[in-house]
Amino acid sequence: MNILEVTNLSKEFKLHMLNNKKLAALKNIHFSMKQGEIIGLTGKSGSGKSSLMKCIYRTYLASSGAIVYLSQKGSIDLVQATEHEIIALRKNEITYCSQFLSVIPRVSAIDVVCETIFKVNTDKELARTKAKMLLEQLGLATDLWDAFPVTFSGGEQQRINIARAIISEPRFLLIDEPTASLDSKTKDVVIDLLLDLKAKGTSILCISHDEYTLEKLVDRRLNLHLGKIDHTN
Ligand SMILES: Nc1ncnc2c1ncn2[C@@H]1O[C@H](COP(=O)(O)OP(=O)(O)OP(=O)(O)O)[C@@H](O)[C@H]1O
Ligand SMILES: [Mg+2]
Known about the structure:
Elements: E1 2-15, E2 21-34, E3 38-43, H1 49-57, E4 64-71, E5 74-77, H2 83-92, E6 94-97, H3 109-120, H4 124-137, H5 154-166, E7 172-176, H6 184-199, E8 203-207, H7 211-217, E9 220-225, E10 228-229
Parallel strand pairs: 3-8, 3-9, 6-7, 7-8
Antiparallel strand pairs: 1-2, 1-4, 4-5, 9-10
Bound molecules: adenosine-5'-triphosphate and magnesium ion.
The site of magnesium ion has 2 residues, from helix 1.
């Protein structure tokens, strides 16, 4: 069963600084994704990987085409869906994990991790216990659990970001460069956590430049080249 079907997807940006010059970031993208599959999204810097992910999450509105997502309540085109429908899907099914943590001031690391779960589950202590387990697995020093992540290192912030994305076990996970600034031991932990999610049924679209992560994690790859899917590999 396909959880995602992308057809003829294009995204153009109008560059206001350059007299509204148009930049075609994605051109006629066409692919589908099976439920429980992990797809690795690869390609050179600027090839359109993050733009594609943001079109799926609807941070960007596609210029044309369709992105049909099979939700628990039936099929929905994420290009045509209302804001209300998108908010509900983000709350209950689809999680996006960007490359960088957008830090919430004066919220502890534990509570940053719990944020998504707090929205749907009122048992705060249970959520915090789960968060601690994840942070322990990810090797984040216990001294940092109650600290504010603003001052954390890149790798520490990335671990917080990953923990908060996976804690609620989303049905569909979009994850941008999950292992980029991690040491090899933590990289293995992240790969195992993502494979555990897959075993529970999560479908994952993962941007990565890291050959080791791709080898261990993904079922297949989609390579973007200048905004198009490159079918040569
Ligand atoms: N909001 C935006 N406004 C204008 N142009 C944009 C915007 N977002 C992306 N682009 C352009 O779209 C193209 C694709 O960018 P994108 O961020 O999707 O690449 P990427 O493959 O994720 O690269 P990287 O590996 O460096 O993260 C680039 O030329 C970029 O400048
Ligand atoms: Mg990117």
